[in-house]
Amino acid sequence: MRRRAKHETAPAQLLDAMRRATDVAGRVAQGDLEARLGPLGLDDVDPGTERAFRNAFNAMLDVVDAYMRESSAAITAASEQHFYRRLLEPGLSGAFLDGARIIESGRVAMEAAHDAARSAEQSRSDLASSLEGTLVGLTEEMSSAAGAMGTTCLLYTSPSPRDGLLSRMPS
């Protein structure tokens, strides 16, 4: 008789367990990645299957949670120009691993673009410094030449043989 009572209550217990799993799945779908499936109350029906289902369900949620945290941390760090933060791949497989590798390649590309921009900025700074030095040198030379022109006197002392009668000098 006890066996019959188990089977009669099993459908109600299964429906309750399904409601609990549905509730947790709904919470996760709404962004609550902390939600986990607790005991389902099926120990007297099939404890091994209940434990296996609960462990697999929660393991799935653990991977989703870890992927979201790791990818968010890696992308946030890269956006702040901290390229040392990589998305950790251990424990990821399938689409999660593919996504992690895509994010990593994006991080590498962002780092390369950042390094190229820094290098170009340094080159522009070096060029500006060189141009400034050249302009300062030219300014000093021009100033010196202008000073020399102000003190130089040209003296016209004798007519040129080519001037002939056009000479302004008294004869």
Note down, in words, how this protein is organized.
- There is one protein chain.
- This protein is mainly alpha-helical and 171 residues long.
- Helices cover 70% and strands 0% of the residues.
- The protein is built from 3 helices and no strands.
- It has helices at 2-29, 47-79, 94-151.
- The longest helix has 58 residues, at 94-151.
- The chain is rod-shaped.
Helix content: 55-70%
Give me the secondary-structure category. Answer: mainly alpha
Distance between the termini: 156 Å
Low-pLDDT stretches: 1-5
Rg, rounded, reads 43 Å
Q: Percent of residues in beta strands?
A: under 5%
Q: What is the number of E strands?
A: 0
Average pLDDT:
79
What is the 3D shape? rod-shaped
- Major sheet summary line: none
